[in-house]
Design goal:
3-stranded antiparallel sheet, 3-stranded mixed sheet, 8 helices, globular
């Protein structure tokens, strides 16, 4: 899958349940993606807002592996200050801040987007989240220019000798599961309301915002509670 810094909990769960995570960085970048951003909310009176690490430059003619983001002290300090302000009353905000501080511990700027994304995953691992082996599509396929869609996915699946493909539920819109070169395709059904939502606004679950960054989740529950929450909200069904 393509990099998604500060990803939402459903995407994190699909990574946790995988044996291998392939970062699809060999394709052209797309505008308005979530490569470098996700939503946070924080205080009960706030609306969800983008939590963004700005690109140093962006072009739809560039491959994802060539994108860079601003990680200077000034940019990172601004990002951390924004999070601290939004989550000043969250009981476990220090866990999320630990993730962010570890992600941006290298003060050089600009930094490769994929490098920062990998460090974000490593920061999750440091707090006890099970992150699988990571591969870069750009390192597996020398030139993916002629490969698109399911052909590209199948080439990557062959590259890691996969027998199962864990896919988003929207995958069915683009290809039939029988077209993939694996024995089984599992489609994800992640529904935060299958389990009582954590009170990410400190109030009733009617105010729950399910599509926020996983940083929101870590700010409101212990790591063990987060893992339990992800397990109870997720279901894999055979495609």
């Amino acid at each position: 899958m393509q990099p998604n810094l500060f990803m939402w909990p459903g995407l994190l769960k699909s990574i946790i349940d995988s044996d291998v995570h392939i970062i699809l960085d060999s394709v052209l970048a797309s505008k308005n993606s979530r490569y470098n951003r996700n939503l946070i909310r924080g205080n009960i009176s706030d609306t969800a807002k983008w939590f963004t690490l700005p690109f140093s430059s962006f072009s739809c003619h560039s491959k994802i592996c060539d994108l860079t983001v601003n990680t200077s002290y000034k940019d990172v300090h601004k990002l951390l200050s924004q999070f601290q302000l939004k989550y000043k009353n969250a009981p476990y905000k220090d866990i999320s801040l630990q993730i962010l501080n570890n992600t941006f511990s290298n003060k050089t700027s600009p930094s490769g987007l994929v490098c920062i994304y990998r460090r974000f995953l490593e920061s999750l691992k440091l707090i006890g989240i099970g992150i699988p082996r990571i591969y870069l599509a750009s390192g597996m396929i020398s030139d993916s220019g002629g490969l698109r869609g399911i052909s590209l996915v199948n080439e990557l699946l062959k590259g890691v000798d996969a027998s199962i493909y864990l896919a988003s539920k929207n995958t069915i819109k683009y290809a039939d599961p029988s077209e993939y070169c694996v024995k089984k395709v599992f489609l994800q059904d992640f529904n935060p309301y299958l389990y009582e939502p954590y009170l990410n606004l400190g109030n009733h679950d009617t105010l729950f915002s399910p599509a926020l960054s996983c940083l929101d989740m870590f700010a409101h529950m212990t790591v063990d509670e987060c893992i339990d929450y992800l397990d109870k909200c997720n279901h894999w069904r055979i495609g």
